[in-house]
Every structure is written in C-alpha cells, then in structure tokens.
Amino acid sequence: MFKLPEAWVWDFWTVDDGEQYHLFFLYASRALRDPHARHYRASVGHAVSSDLVSWERVTDALVRSDAPAFDDLATWTGSVVRHPDGRWFMFYTGSSLNSSGANVQSIGYAVSTDLFVWDKAPGPVLSADARWYEKYSDGHWHDEAFRDPWVFADPDGNGWHMLITARANHGDVVDRGVVGHAWSADLESWELREPLSSPGQGFGQLEVLQPFVVDGRQVLLFNCMVGDMPEAARADGVTGGVWIADAKSPLGPYDIAGAQVIDDPSLYVGKFVTERDSGDTKLLAFVHDRDGAFVGEITDPYAVSWDGDRLSLTPMELAATSSEALRPEALTLRE
C-alpha cells in the first residue's frame, strides 16, 4: 500500500520503463483538514517500485504554474506514454478559476527524457469545444469538466488517441457524461473530435478513463460517484465507484449503460496494470473512504480474473495462497 503520513493521496497513473514501475499520484497536505480542499492544492508526486507493492517516493513531477496559466490552480490526473524518439510525454489536467470563480479544466503536457525531470510545454493543447462539449457558461454543472487525459497509440499505427472526461452539450443535465476524444500524429499537436459515446447512459461524468484488454476481453474502465448519477441510475442500491463496461475496441463502441460497478464502495480510480514478468493483469485503486471519512491511500495490487461474465478482484496475498479456495472472499463486480 502506498500512503503518506503528511498528505492525502488519490488519483494516480503508472508507467513501466522496463526496469521499474513509476507511480504518479495527486497529493495534498493533510494540514488543510478538509479533504474536499485537496483538489485546489493538488500536485503530482512520483514514486518507483520493482513489484507494485513496495514504493520509494522520489522528487515530485509537477506543480501548478504561476498565474496566469491554464494550470495555475492545480495539476490533476493524466497519463504517460513514450514517443518513438525515446522521450516521455505526460499529459495532465490543468485547473484554473475563471473570472466568476468557476473551475475550468483543460489539458496540457510535459516532456522528460528520464521520467524524473519534466518540462512543461506551453498550454493548454486542448480545451472544451462548444460544438460537442458542455462549457461552464451553459450553467448546468459545477465546473467545466474536461480532464483526465488517457493517451494511447492507435491500434493500426495511425498516430495517437486521447480519451477525456467530458460532458456533452445536450441531453438531461445530470446524464451528460461522455467519452471525449482527440487525435494526434505526433503527441504535440492535437485535434479535438466529437465524443466516442452518447449522453443519457446513466452518468453525469465518466472520470479517469482507461481502455484495457483483460484476458482477451476489451473493456473500458471509468469512475463515477453515485452523487454524479441521475436518480434513475441509482437502482438496486448502486453506490458508485469504479465501473467497467464492455467495449468492441479501445475506441468503442462501449456498453456504458450496461457497465458494472466494483462491489466495494471504498475504492475509486481503479487502474489496470500489466505485471512485467508474468504478463498478468493487476488492478490498483485508491481508498476513498471508510466509515464516512476520507482515507486517501493507494491499495496493493489485486489479482484480476473473469468468473463467467463477472470480474473478480482478489487481494494478492489471498491469490498467492489459493485463489480457488478463497474465491468467496474475492471482490466481484455487481451484475
């Protein structure tokens, strides 16, 4: 488990350089007292590990810029990929307050040759476009949601794609969550495109997206709290949290309306990680709350397997003992 005594830790992303796993995470001082205040004080920390369990904290990756800048309030969630020329690109969310005090999010990037020292590029490179996406000026949501860039190479070798947490500019105001989309030939210049999904599928926003293949099955992982879901989508005691939807490809179509939630409401921002030596799929998440109190720490990996149409997450220490004998203790996705 990765936790800091002096700070809350929450959203995170990982990358494997072939020798070490790198964990980039949002953190903010517990001296704020109110965990809700952490969002406006978030920096991007950095830790390394050889096994996804024991982590060594190293120098922070990013902090907010001096005003005026698109990231002068905070730096939020992102992803890291490697350019064919060997450079590492970190795409991240920049948060800033507009003239009316509203939180406006947009996307920038930083570049590194070693994953430790990062140089920000002038930004932002992408912002919400009213042709397809909701703007704060529409007056329907508490912020301008355009964040959490997840970047991956095109499966057919045609450049790069970015999935974005965004909201459509039409539909029921509490049901506008969509998978935003952008494309780039070189990771530096980006073309914003229309969403890859439609609103009206039960989510006000789809946070921290990640397409992944689990044992040959393409899925889309995303996150949504119950408070960001329309009332009709809260049937059968759904609590919100980490969700997984079936998908035809990394670019969709996605069965978002049929997504399943991990049956552990304490977890949020799940991330699939491929274990280097075994090739096995693991899942990490951060502990959001227990007994109504915010926790702010990142779990050890869970072993991941399909049980029919359900995904089982088994704590690693249990999986190592006997996955079959301990199957009733596994976390499962609610049907």
From TrEMBL:
Its EC number is 3.2.1.26. Belongs to the glycosyl hydrolase 32 family. It is an enzyme of class 3 (hydrolase). Pfam families: Glyco_hydro_32N. Keywords: Glycosidase, Hydrolase. It comes from the Bacteria. It comes from Terrabacter ginsenosidimutans. Residues 19-225 form the Glycosyl hydrolase family 32 N-terminal domain. This is beta-fructofuranosidase. InterPro entries: GH32_Enzymes (IPR051214), Glyco_hydro_32 (IPR001362), Glyco_hydro_32_N (IPR013148), Glyco_hydro_beta-prop_sf (IPR023296).
